[in-house]
Amino acid sequence: LHDVAVANGGTSVEDPPGPRESTMGVMHLCYFLDPDGHKICGIHRES
C-alpha cells in the first residue's frame, strides 16, 4: 500500500512502513499523505 501510494503522488510520513508491537500483537503499519494532504494509515494484523 505504502509503495503504491508514494509511486502515485503520496508522501511518506512518520516511521518507515513495517511491523509494530502493540497490546493487540504485531501489526504492520504505514503512514502517508495523499496528494490532497490527507494523512492515511494502512494497518495489517494477522488474524
UniProtKB/TrEMBL annotation:
InterPro entries noted in UniProt: Glyas_Bleomycin-R_OHBP_Dase (IPR029068)
Region annotation Disordered: where it falls in the sequence: 1-20
Name used for this protein in its record: Glyoxalase
